[in-house]
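request received
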Amino acid sequence: MYDSENREGEADFVIASQFVKPESIKRMRQDGGGLIFIMIPKQVADKLQLPFLANLYSEISNKYPVLKEIAPNDIPYDTKSSFSLYINHRKTFTGITDYDRSLTMRKFAELIKRIENLDSNLVIKEFGKEFRSPGHVPICVASKNLLDERKGHTELVVSLLQMADLIPAGSGCEIMGNNGRALSKKDTIKYANKNNYIFLEGNDIIKAWKQWSK
Amino acid sequence: MYDSENREGEADFVIASQFVKPESIKRMRQDGGGLIFIMIPKQVADKLQLPFLANLYSEISNKYPVLKEIAPNDIPYDTKSSFSLYINHRKTFTGITDYDRSLTMRKFAELIKRIENLDSNLVIKEFGKEFRSPGHVPICVASKNLLDERKGHTELVVSLLQMADLIPAGSGCEIMGNNGRALSKKDTIKYANKNNYIFLEGNDIIKAWKQWSK
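response:
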């Protein structure tokens, strides 16, 4: 997926978390190289009672004044940070191997499916039985109204999943170019063709979304 | 560096943060593939007033009950998590590119050097002028008495830096094998030889440390 809306341009691997295998993590880290993370809708985050880290830091900054000083009040690409907790499945060891990260992602997707009709107080117990934090897989939370509200990669991915009727947890990773910055659009298309991946342009997802969500 | 003490065995890239360049990040993500992070002594963390995430979560868990549920009370390789904040230098864009992560690491090492003789209240202001959190570079904090207290990779790296009289901020990354788990010791030695890197065994660092710190 390529997001031209992003000021610097951004290429990303995207895969539904329910399908992530150790080989997926290997591919993302070897050919992508960015942060390997999970993206979920705001509604799921609310059900899991997941805080935004930026809010959490701000709320406890009386105890830790350093958190006031390093507040993310100047993010160049957005008005606020969409990062929530970093998690590991409790059956992982370090949490970072291909095996461990793929387990965390797959099990997280399964959890989301399982809690669909549960009350939120039960949900966090189910969540806690299986996962711990701090961990190695960051969760980013999409804006509530998805592409109608914000057009970042988290919203693009969550919208895609919704249109495809998959479990609303996406896994992704930025793809780096050889110049130490994001891979260019041209090279992203070349890479996708060579490896038999589908290339999607952010703007096309937005168009499809407008049609679909009418 | 290879740590045989670790139950699963663990291979790591190690480089002093002051020397990290975009190419270092590229090498770590392409040939390593684990979490790319910073390691510092407890004394530096205290000066920066950096909290352990696990403590911070626990302290604010009345407001966010989910944090109680997902507490990291079952880490298989340790008694507690050594993770502190994830930071970005304020001059980064997304924070994740090779360029951005190397800038964050180098500037963090420079900060540590600069604050050596400053009062902690000034230190957090200096820190906040340059860095924001949440970010993409996690900081791990070594045990106070280093290898006399704990023999994890964070302590090994911080001890190495101290013996080498470098700025006490190390950068590192776990090296994955083709099997989706940590690279074996044999393959780590092979890789180091092929690429002209120094191979260090954790136990040898511990021996040197005992000698040096007498």
